[in-house]
Every structure is written in structure tokens, then in C-alpha cells.
Write a structure and sequence with these properties.
heterodimer, A: two-stranded antiparallel sheet, B: about 300 residues, mainly alpha, ABC transporter involved in vitamin B12 uptake, BtuC, 11 helices
């Protein structure tokens, strides 16, 4: 019975974190899947969201900025606004250049944000991070507090999914794929390509900020290394590409699937292997995930659930 | 005044010559293969680790094993290109950028697995700096780094301006279509680009390791300043990359000088942000770089 309860709690935590990754993958799907924008700084936007929400909702502390004790909802909304605003700044500068420049600039902004979070100790408590972040439903008895948070995360995933599916099939989404597939044609059709790209980039960044805020509340703690920047960024890319870039269902499926593999192999290696090998096996896992990505890119570029093209043909009844 | 030269300008020149070597490879792969190679930082790390193992095996000076480390690194780069990048030659550039992003983590995890994550030093012991004219302090290893880096840059210049393959590389960087029409063997040029870029990256890694130490994240920390240097100089412009590297290195070190008042102008913790700021400024005002490179 105890074991069954333990497994139940593990599944709950798996779905909570998997759900947060699904939000990140959906955010990346708006940028990369719909529009072809390469954001290599996911961890940066995630961290900004986490800190903003944590600082706005935490009780006063002498160690960092804060003491506003706002409700968690305000924290999450502010997280989206601030991450989106930073995304807007980056987008304004780099969006007219090719994807490579955006990738370099976003990796740079993520590193710069990490420097700021580490060095501005008056606001962020530096490397020691912000602790005692309030967690929604924490007054409920165990395990319902955990279940409550899981349901919150999963319902956010569901709402996002429906909004993004709507956006994808709406004229807005079609302009996006038009830009990705044939930019000169979209431009010739009178679409303001830069404007649409910035909209997609900012929306994606705001969604990533939301995921960051949720993580801070879930873990009750955030520090500059809470998400090891590249592995986190890379993992989200792998999730989206394996699930199916451009497909919202694929993004969610890829996130839950890869997170399960990632966390289950971590537990398996730390239990089964002696310490020294357990540390080394972490590198093997990163290597294997990278290899899987390379194979998927070369052999199955569509992923598990390839993008469903909206056909303009008359026979299509599903399109409005 | 001497403090300014000894503790800010000289370290800037040393760091800058390391950046310059790394930036040449980034700039050439960006110009010739048309993608931003995110695995370039890890190539530098790999070169430093090869040199570390060779020094352990032979007991020679790091500079003596450098050519072998460069050859090994170039061989790895050629293999990686063959297996992971070549299938995407005709595909949109974004695919190969993702592939290189994956390669960055794959190469790093291989390094962490094989060599461990502890700091290692290439040259044990502390060197006393020479003191010239009673005030100018420069340590032998720094003279070595700047001297060898200048030597390598001269070699790159001769290669690009005097040899057939070097001219073919410049031609392809200027216009791949024209280069192909004139009968240049593009795959050959691509291989030469990897050998040159990876060899110089290995040298940059070894020089950084001589200056500081060998560690698994050293290349990633170089990646951003090196990209900034390549963009500053102009993509596909090797001479621009050299100049860009020196400018970024010197700017990073000068940013913590007490220009106004007593304290450093910028807290030393933000040194790494200077390269990024310069790069963003360049992307806003002059994306083609100082030497009129390409903008994609």
C-alpha cells in the first residue's frame, strides 16, 4: 500500500513537472514550430518569469527584494508580462535578421540575465536564491495539495492548447506558416512580416515566463541555476522536435514523454549504479538525448505527430 | 597609468588574441557553410583536453603538442561534419543550427564523461612575470600566447592570400553560386574550412588553458564573445574576426577599469556581458560588421 502511494505521488510529480515542460514546449512551438524562430535562450525567459513571480508573492525578507505578498495569480501574470517585454526588446533588434542571429542573441540574453540574477544580490539574493515562495493549495492536506497543483498545471496546459489550436487555424496562424514557408510570398501578399514575427516571439516568451513562475511556486524556491540553462533549453527543443514541431498535440506529447524518460532514467541510474557511475551516467543521458535528436532530425524530421497542414482546398470541412 | 596597462590593457590583448583565433573559425563556417556553429565552443574545449592528455603522455611543453592537438581536433570536426552536418547541406539552415546545438551538448558530455569535471592545469606552477623598464609586467606565458597567436594569424593570412585553397575559401565565402560556377570543388573547400576552423579553435582552447586552466565549460564561456567578435568583424571576413576578437577582449578588460571615480566602471561580474552588449549594438546599427561582411 505504501509503495502504491509512493508511486501515486511520483506520478503526480511527474505530471506536474511534465505539464510545466509541456507549457514550455507549447511556448516554443509558437516561436519555432509555427514561425521558424530559433530561441536558444528559453532558460532565460523561464528564469525571469520564475523570479518575477517569486519576488511579487513572497513574504518580506531582508535578503532580497520583495514583501509584496500578492496573490499567486498576479505573480504569474506579471511573470508573463515581464518575460514578454524582454522578448519584445530582443525581437525588435534581431527579428529582421536570419534565424541564426536570433539564436545567438537569445543565448546571449539568457547568459546576461543569469549574470544579473547572480550579481544583483539586493534583489535576488544572488546565488542563494529566493526561498519560501508560496505554493498554491499548500494549506490542503497531503496528498491533495500536490494533486491540486498538478490539476492547476494541467488545466493551464489544456487552456493554452485550446487557445493555440484556435490561433493556429485562425488567419493569424496561417499567416505564420506562410511566413515560415515562403517569406517573399507572404510579404508580396501585403503581410507585415516583422510585426507578425514579433507577435509570435513575444507570445512564446510570455508563455515561457508563465512556466517559470509555475516552477518557482511548485518548488517553493528559485536560484540562478534552478534550471541548468543549456540542458533545460535543449531538453525543450528535443521535446518539441521529437513530439512534432508545429503540432500542439505533439508538443504536449513530446514534453510528457521526454520528461518521463529523463526523470525515470535519472532515478534508475541513481538507484542502480554506484555513486561515481551515477554521476557519469548523467553525461551519457545528455549524449543519448542528443543522439536521439540527431537521428530524429535526419530520419524523421516531422516527429511523432507531424504537423497537420491546413489545406486551402475546398474539400476540407474542418477549417472554418 | 602602469596599472592600467598591466592589469587592464595587457590582459585585454591576451584575451583578445584568444578570441580572435576562435572567431576566425566561426566567421568562416558562418560565411562558407552558412550557419552559426554552436558547437565551436566545445571544439575549443576538446582541443584543450587533447593537449592536456598529450602533455600527460609525453611530458612536452604545451606548445610542442599543440600541432598534434590541432590535427586531432580537426579530424573530429571532419567526422562530425560528415555524419551530422552533411545530410543537411540542401536543407534549410535552421536544421543544421539545431544539429550543431545538439552537437555542442554531445561533445561536452563526451568530454565530461572521459576526463571528468575537475579543473586541470596544463602548465603546473606559478610563473613570475618579467619586469621591463621597471614598470611593465608581463609573464612568459602571456608573451608565449600573444606571440603564437600572432604567428597563427599570420599563417592564416598567408594561407588565404597566397594559396589556391585559401583563395577558393574566400571566393566561396563571397558568393557560393559564383564559386561553384567557376569550378571550385565546394566539398573540398568545406573540408578545408573545418580543418582551419577547428585547428584554430584548438589553439584558442590551448592558449586559454595555458593562461588559466582546463575545464569542461571553458569553450561555452568563449562561445558568446567569439560570436560577438565574428559579428563585429563581419561574417565571412577572417581579418574582421581577428580585429573583432581583439576589440572584444580589450573592451571586456577595460570595462572594469576605474574610468570615473575610484570604483570599477562596471562590476567585474558583468565582464561577460560586455561582449553581448557590443554585439547587440552592432546588430542594431551595422549588422554587416566593421569589415562589411554578410548579413543573412
Amino acid at each position: 500500500m505504501d509503495q502504491a502511494y509512493g508511486i501515486f505521488l511520483y506520478v503526480v510529480s511527474l505530471l506536474t513537472m511534465g505539464g510545466i515542460y509541456a507549457i514550455l514546449a507549447l511556448g516554443l512551438n509558437i516561436q519555432f514550430g509555427f514561425t521558424g524562430l530559433f530561441n536558444a535562450g528559453i532558460a532565460g525567459f523561464f528564469a525571469v518569469g520564475a523570479y518575477v513571480s517569486a519576488i511579487l508573492t513572497t513574504a518580506p525578507s531582508a535578503r532580497h527584494l520583495g514583501g509584496y505578498e500578492l496573490p499567486v495569480v498576479f505573480g504569474l501574470v506579471a511573470a508573463m508580462v515581464v518575460s514578454g517585454a524582454i522578448g519584445w526588446l530582443v525581437g525588435r533588434i534581431c527579428i529582421r535578421l536570419r534565424a541564426d542571429y536570433l539564436a545567438i542573441a537569445t543565448i546571449g540574453i539568457a547568459e546576461t540575465l543569469r549574470l544579473i540574477l547572480k550579481n544583483e544580490t539586493w534583489a535576488t539574493n544572488g546565488a542563494r536564491g529566493v526561498s519560501e515562495v508560496p505554493k498554491p493549495f499548500e494549506h490542503l492536506p497531503e496528498p491533495w495539495n500536490q494533486v491540486g497543483l498538478m490539476l492547476l498545471v494541467l488545466s493551464i496546459v489544456a487552456v493554452l492548447y485550446f487557445l493555440l489550436e484556435r490561433a493556429r487555424t485562425a488567419p493569424w496562424g496561417r499567416v505564420m506558416s506562410a511566413i515560415r514557408e515562403n517569406e517573399p510570398a507572404a510579404r508580396a501578399a501585403g503581410k507585415n512580416v516583422e510585426q507578425f514575427r514579433i507577435q509570435a516571439f513575444v507570445t512564446g516568451c510570455a508563455v515561457m515566463g508563465l512556466a517559470g513562475g509555475l516552477t518557482a511556486h511548485y518548488l517553493k524556491f528559485i536560484d540562478p541555476n534552478a534550471a541548468e540553462p543549456l540542458t533545460a533549453t535543449f531538453l525543450v527543443f528535443v521535446m518539441l522536435i521529437i513530439g512534432g514541431s508545429g503540432n500542439n498535440k505533439g508538443a504536449i506529447l513530446g514534453a510528457i514523454l521526454m520528461w518521463t524518460v529523463w526523470s525515470a532514467t535519472e532515478i534508475a541510474t541513481s538507484r542502480l549504479l554506484p555513486d561515481e557511475w551515477a554521476i557519469r551516467s548523467a553525461y551519457v543521458r545528455v549524449f543519448l538525448i542528443g543522439l536521439v535528436l540527431q537521428i530524429v532530425l535526419q530520419r524523421f524530421p516531422g516527429g511523432i505527430l507531424p504537423e497537420r497542414r491546413l489545406s486551402a482546398a475546398k474539400g476540407d470541412k474542418s477549417s472554418p | 597609468m602602469m596599472d592600467f596597462i598591466n592589469f587592464h590593457l595587457m590582459p585585454g590583448v591576451i584575451l583578445g588574441s584568444i578570441y580572435a583565433l576562435g572567431a576566425i573559425g566561426i566567421s568562416l563556417t558562418f560565411g562558407i557553410l552558412r550557419f552559426a556553429n554552436f558547437a565551436h565552443g566545445e571544439t575549443m574545449t576538446l582541443g584543450a583536453y587533447f593537449a592536456f592528455t598529450l602533455v600527460q603522455l609525453t611530458g612536452w611543453h604545451p606548445l610542442a603538442v599543440l600541432p598534434f592537438a590541432m590535427i586531432l581536433t580537426a579530424a573530429v570536426a571532419l567526422g562530425v561534419d560528415r555524419v551530422f552536418y552533411k545530410p543537411f547541406r540542401a536543407a534549410p539552415a535552421i536544421m543544421v543550427v539545431i544539429a550543431s546545438f545538439g552537437m555542442m551538448l554531445m561533445i561536452r558530455s563526451v568530454i565530461q564523461f572521459s576526463w571528468g569535471v575537475q579543473l586541470k592545469s596544463l602548465v603546473p606552477g606559478i610563473q613570475r612575470p618579467y619586469i621591463l623598464f621597471d614598470a611593465l609586467r608581463i609573464s612568459p606565458k602571456h608573451m608565449l600566447i600573444v606571440g603564437s597567436a600572432l604567428g597563427l594569424m599570420l599563417a592564416v593570412h598567408l594561407l588565404l592570400s597566397r594559396t589556391k585553397i585559401g583563395k577558393a575559401m574566400r571566393a566561396m565565402s563571397d558568393s557560393p553560386e559564383l564559386a561553384r560556377l567557376t569550378g571550385i570543388d565546394t566539398e573540398m573547400v568545406i573540408r578545408a574550412t573545418w580543418v582551419l576552423g577547428a585547428g584554430l579553435a584548438a589553439a584558442a582552447g590551448v592558449f586559454l588553458a595555458i593562461d588559466t586552466h582546463v575545464e569542461t565549460m571553458m569553450g561555452f564561456k568563449l562561445l558568446l564573445p567569439v560570436f560577438a567578435a565574428a559579428i563585429l568583424g563581419g561574417i565571412g571576413r577572417p581579418y574582421g574576426a581577428m580585429a573583432g576578437g581583439l576589440i572584444i577582449g580589450i573592451a571586456e578588460e577595460l570595462s572594469s577599469y576605474a574610468w570615473l571615480g575610484d570604483g570599477p566602471l562596471l562590476a567585474p561580474g558583468y565582464k561577460a556581458g560586455v561582449a553581448f552588449a557590443l554585439m547587440i549594438a552592432m546588430l542594431i546599427w551595422r549588422p554587416s560588421g566593421l569589415f562589411r561582411g554578410k548579413v543573412f
